């Protein structure tokens, strides 16, 4: 997975971001100030930088002009929500602009898009004994291809991209079926059972009581 530098002066927020990213296999470092960010970027060479705008001293809009020389993609992650700020951030060279508060699943999805666009993500994963190629939308187990329907694959991908994070049935419907899906949450339960059977995920695809599901993986 990727090396991600979190440039955020509030440690509690940085810790929360790191927790969500580390659960899905990313490695993180924290930089509370602009000077720390520049030094860690040069020394550590991260694959991606999450940059707050409202930093003490030099703010994120000033800092990104110096970070651009490293040719590392930057995502602004900030409480500043105005369209003017968003346009400014994108014009200064950010790949994306995400406002706080944010859903962990959305942050992870947007990070994956930026990493893939920057060529930092191969899209190949091995989760619970299953080999997954996200670029090819192919799945295999012990070298043998596993046939999934389009909807089964979409659900599996949502779980994989958010592995080790509990997702509600409603969130899974929204992510895997789309905002305009008019069906019931029972649809999720049916497809989960199919994935457990086809992928032999009885032990790692956990039910979260009265909430939803969580795919547990060390990978």
What can you tell me about this protein's structure?
The model has no long low-confidence stretch (mean pLDDT 92). The protein folds into two domains: 115 residues, Rossmann fold, CATH 3.40.50.2300; 92 residues, Arc Repressor Mutant, subunit A. It has a five-stranded parallel beta sheet, with helices on both faces. The protein has a four-stranded antiparallel beta sheet with strand order 6-7-8-9, with no helix packed on it. With 219 residues, the protein is α/β, with parallel strands linked by helices. The chain is elongated. It is built from eight helices and twelve strands. The longest helix has 14 residues.
Quick rundown:
This protein has 219 residues and is an alpha/beta fold.
Q: What does the average pLDDT come to?
A: 92
> Can you tell me the CATH class of the largest domain?
Alpha Beta
CATH architecture of the largest domain: 3-Layer(aba) Sandwich
SS summary, helix count: 8
Distance between the termini: 9 Å
Query: How much helix, percentage-wise, in residues?
Result: 40-55%
The strands making up the biggest β-sheet line up spatially as 2-1-3-4-5
Coarse morphology: elongated
Report the biggest beta sheet as strand number plus sense, adding barrel if it closes. Answer: 5 strands, parallel
Q: Please give the domain count.
A: 2
Structural class: alpha/beta
Q: pLDDT under 50 segments (min length 5)?
A: none
Number of strands: 12
Would you give the CATH topology of the largest domain?
Answer: Rossmann fold
CATH superfamily of the largest domain: Response regulator
Strand content: 15-25%
The succession of helices and strands, N to C, reads: EHEHEHEHEHEEEEHEHHEE
